[in-house]
Specification:
- The complex is a heterodimer.
- By secondary structure, chain A is of the alpha+beta class.
- The longest helix of chain A is centred in the middle third of the chain and has 12 residues.
- Helix content of chain A is about 15%, strand content about 35%.
- The model of chain A has no long low-confidence stretch (mean pLDDT about 90).
- By secondary structure, chain B is α/β, with parallel strands linked by helices.
- Chain B has three domains: about 180 residues, FAD/NAD(P)-binding domain (3-Layer(bba) Sandwich), CATH 3.50.50; about 130 residues, FAD/NAD(P)-binding domain (3-Layer(bba) Sandwich); about 100 residues, Immunoglobulin-like.
- Chain B is built from eight helices and 29 strands.
- Chain B has a five-stranded parallel β-sheet, covered by helices on one side.
- In chain B, a hairpin with an 8-residue loop joins strand 3 and strand 4.
- In chain B, helix 1 runs parallel beside helix 7, helix 3 runs parallel beside helix 4 and helix 4 runs parallel beside helix 5.
- The mean pLDDT of chain B is about 95.
Chain lengths: ~120, ~425
């Protein structure tokens, strides 16, 4: 039995419902209305990646308890929960500025965690 | 001239910036909270700014960048200031730390946002235990206050905030059992169904609802069933043992101040009528953002609010004659509902389909006469679409014309 994966294409607002069949090295995409859908589906099946956004504990601020953060590059989809768990263990101290690196090379994935907000006091 | 903008979320900030850019001498941005940004600071996920800033930003980033523009351009920001009453002559009663004052600006832009539909509005039977939250409240508790809302969660309603929170709870280590949606199609954007539910194997139960909440002190379980014709289908009931029920069942525009000004509320936007510059029936009074009807993308909110900001200055003293637009058949809502005639640029009509449609034709009718029509590959209720009117069609409109915007499915191209 070949694997059949169902996806919703997110390349454009049409949102085609894609059916991807993997048979050995062959990947067959159905349901796409344009070539971008096929590209997206193949990418999703072969090496799906996601950006991760979360918050970390913020120390020293009078007004904020959490600092919102994101990964500066996408991480492999199967590492998302691992990265989220690692981010949960981080803390940060004010002042911190938008874009500042909070943690380097998280989980050895060559991806940094950066602040998405400036908190100075 | 002075322009007052009520509400410092994305719509209010964008309106204030564009009013200042258009040449308003003084722009006052009045915000109830101690900071600008509205709901954006708690929306820590990405997907904002693709059209306005040309990059994919998180909510806090979008708010911070827009806030810098507000500051740089010289908008006067009044924080911890609340408009408690609004009068038909445009004057505003404002409560501030300094005391209560009356402001009478030359134009007012309301950017007051929306509120979540609470449990009471959807009548779920059962007990009243702790552990039931609206999605936005759960988002605030998780992302701003840093609380763990629950460990095993059921989400009712597939609006975007509910979908986003399903992923958020999962990343925080909670287990989301399922999302139930009363309608046969999802309420949120496709990309959120994919990236927030499918990515984590969270089931989406379409045509399902919670029919009972169980538990005395705290939620212990919810009973869920398939719904047909508004009734639970016997034999489809399933009990989910959860400690938390999150509701994502829609937003309602905040219209208290608009009501006070004597404006009438439309049943299909739950807000007042506006023209293409987001001006209400009271000249020089505007309403933008979710206060004017619920939008799905902050980029659209910011673009439409900018239109109002510029118009609040540029249209000063223009003679007004209008045509009127109503949604019909499978068009659920249309914004604007009034078209000001004689403007330099033809208007863009924003509309939302009432159900998912494949290849479709949307027509603007005057009685039975077709004024303009456009084709669409697909239309979804979760996604606001645009119908830009061409100049030659705009010029055909006469004062008092009553138009309807209709959609008909041409057929599937599958």
């Amino acid at each position: 039995m070949p694997d059949c994966i169902e996806l919703i294409c997110i390349v454009c607002p049409v949102g085609c419902e894609l059916r991807v069949t993997v048979q050995g090295d062959d990947i067959v995409v159905a349901g796409n209305k344009c070539p971008k859908g096929e590209q997206y589906a193949v990418h999703e099946v072969v090496s799906p990646v996601r950006f991760v956004q979360s918050t970390v504990r913020l120390l020293g601020s009078k007004t904020e308890r959490r600092l919102p953060v994101k990964t500066d590059k996408p991480v492999p989809k199967d590492k998302v929960l691992q990265v989220a768990a690692a981010i949960r263990r981080l803390t940060c101290r004010v002042p911190v500025h938008l874009g500042e690196v909070i943690a380097e090379n998280i989980e050895g994935l060559e991806v940094n965690v950066v602040a998405t907000k400036t908190v100075t006091a | 001239m002075t322009v007052a903008v009520v509400g410092g979320g994305p719509a209010g900030m964008a309106a204030a910036i564009s009013a200042k850019k258009a040449g308003a001498l003084k722009v006052v941005l009045i915000e109830r909270a101690e900071r600008l940004g509205g709901v954006l600071p708690q929306c820590i996920h990405s997907g904002f700014g693709l059209s306005y800033f040309g990059q994919d930003l998180t909510g806090p980033e979008f708010a911070e960048l827009l806030g810098r523009e507000v500051e740089a351009i010289g908008v006067e920001v009044w924080l911890q200031s609340m408009v408690t009453e609004a009068y038909p002559d445009r004057s505003l009663l404002i409560s501030r730390a300094e005391g209560i004052s009356l402001l009478k600006p030359d134009a007012v832009i309301f950017a007051v946002g929306a509120r979540e539909r609470p449990r009471g509005a959807i009548a779920i039977p059962g007990s009243r235990p702790a552990g039931i939250y609206t999605a936005g409240t759960a988002q605030y508790m998780t992302n701003i206050q840093g609380y763990e809302v629950g460990k095993r969660i059921f989400i009712l309603g597939s609006g975007d905030i509910g979908l986003i929170m399903a992923r958020r709870f999962t990343l925080e280590g909670a287990k989301v059992e399922a999302v139930a949606e009363l309608m046969p199609f999802p309420g949120g954007l496709s990309r959120n169904v994919q990236q927030c539910l499918k990515d984590f194997g969270i089931p989406l139960l379409l045509s399902h609802s919670v029919i009972e909440v169980m538990g005395r002190e705290r939620v212990e379980a919810v009973k869920v069933a398939k719904i047909e014709n508004g009734m639970p289908v016997a034999g489809t009931e399933k009990v989910y043992e959860v400690d938390t029920l999150v509701l994502s069942v829609g937003l309602l525009p905040e219209v208290e101040l608009l009501r006070q000004m004597g404006l009438t509320i439309l049943p299909y936007t739950n807000s007042v009528t506006v023209n293409q510059f987001f001006e209400t029936e009271i000249p020089h009074v505007y309403v933008v953002g979710n206060g004017a009807g619920i939008w799905d993308l902050v980029d659209h909110v910011v673009v439409s609010a900018s239109t109002a900001g510029a118009a609040s200055v540029a249209n000063w003293g223009v003679e007004r004659s209008e045509a009127f637009v109503e949604p019909c058949r499978d068009v659920r809502l249309v914004i604007p509902q009034r078209i000001l005639l004689g403007a330099d640029e033809p208007p863009v009509l924003w509309f939302r389909a009432g159900k998912p449609l494949s290849v479709s034709k949307v027509t603007l009718l005057r009685g039975t006469e077709v004024l303009a029509s456009r084709g669409y590959l697909s239309l979804r209720p979760a996604e606001m679409a645009t119908f830009p009117l061409r100049k030659e069609h705009y010029e055909k409109l006469k004062p008092g014309d009553r138009l309807t915007l209709c959609v008909s499915e041409v057929g599937s191209d599958a």
